[in-house]
Amino acid sequence: MCRALLLSRLALSLLLLLLLVSPPIRISEAHEGHDEGEEQGGGCEMSPDVRVVAEYRPGVVTVDGHGDEWADIDAFEFALLPALDFDKDKAYADGKIAMKALHDGRNVYFLLQVDGQYMYTKGDSSSCPSVALMFQIGENATYSNMGGCRKFGAECSSLSCQGHEVDIMHFSIGNAVPGRLYGSNPIDNQEGTGADRFGHLVDLYSWNPHCRYVDGKGPSGPLGNESSAQNDWQGAWWHSAFTVHSGFVENNSPYASAGQKGTYYFEFSRPLRTRDRLQQDVQFTIGQVSKVAVAFWYPDGGKPWAKSAHYSASCDWMPMNIISASSSYGASRSRGAWDAASAFSLILSGVALGLSVFVVYWVSKVKSVPFTPIDRL
Ligand SMILES: *[C@@H]1O[C@H](CO)[C@@H](O)[C@H](O)[C@H]1NC(C)=O
Ligand SMILES: *[C@@H]1O[C@H](CO)[C@@H](O)[C@H](O)[C@H]1NC(C)=O
């Protein structure tokens, strides 16, 4: 009797275990029928599984815009929906954005990969694709309204909007040569700002969409000696239609003929910690979770985009785990979509359920299992 009980308990725990390890189906859709007048993000319904993981993988990637070295890193895929009208019927037509992240203990690296016909107009960034990353700094900073501080114009300040700070990296490629490094540079860093006069890969912060500044500047202009601001980001871009790999110069613009199908790559790095003293940079900590959002602009139909008219990978902050070298991500691995592994584990759980029902039935049927005292073995 005792053994039967033990066996059925074993079967039950096996079943529970199987149910637990099978990855959940991930859905990151917004509400349908977003009500008029509803506050932005109010209709956001995001699966708790939506997240990004940055594993410790030193010496794997070079920030050159090429995606090849990232082949072994897991991608987190998200549909791109209009940020201000998060409606899946209005998704970016050429597919999802894939985000990859890793760190080497000092810097964190990102790859954004999105399919799109080649579009490039030199000097006109709004006629080129563009990407931005946004991170929560202040504990009360909301995804919607870029921090969500309710002070505007002369009223918004580091005091009145305290707790609502978000950190933004925006790369506009109209003046950026593919494969070349932009962002942090000695001239803008000497001036103590997050600007980038060469490629427009800028380091910004904001309290809401109307109170948004490059690091080191504020509502009343430069922050002067107060600021130790730097542009802490570096990045490069690429498109799969390019054939020359030895190095482009500006004269090669537009680098490939327009309209070719392919994939855009945007690659970035930033130190985990920066010298910011003004709540203008997010600080990353190994083993902790940060909050991230991804924006993508595309000149749909060749029409230049407007700043507010961008796609977003989510309708709220997405957690980003920066995991330590010693912790394994494999155990909690799950992908951006219902994939073969999930299907397989569902089948497996089904089989296990059947099996355990059978075992329980069999055990309860074979009631006369004789008790074998352990000392007789
Ligand atoms: C965030 O909001 C809570 C509740 O309103 C408040 O108690 C807290 O002080 C705020 N945090 C900051 C940093 O302003
Ligand atoms: C900034 O530093 C300079 C010299 O280092 C000093 O003369 C000036 O008063 C400082 N300004 C402020 C606002 O602290």
UniProtKB/TrEMBL annotation:
InterPro entries: Cyt-c552/DMSO_Rdtase_haem-bd. Keywords: Electron transport, Heme, Iron, Membrane, Metal-binding, Signal, Transmembrane, Transmembrane helix, Transport. The chain crosses the membrane at residues 343-363. Residues 67-312 form the Cytochrome c-552/DMSO reductase-like haem-binding domain. SMART domains: EB_dh. One of its GO terms (molecular function) is heme binding. Residues 1-30 form the signal peptide. It comes from the Eukaryota. This is Cytochrome c-552/DMSO reductase-like haem-binding domain-containing protein. It comes from Colocasia esculenta (Wild taro).
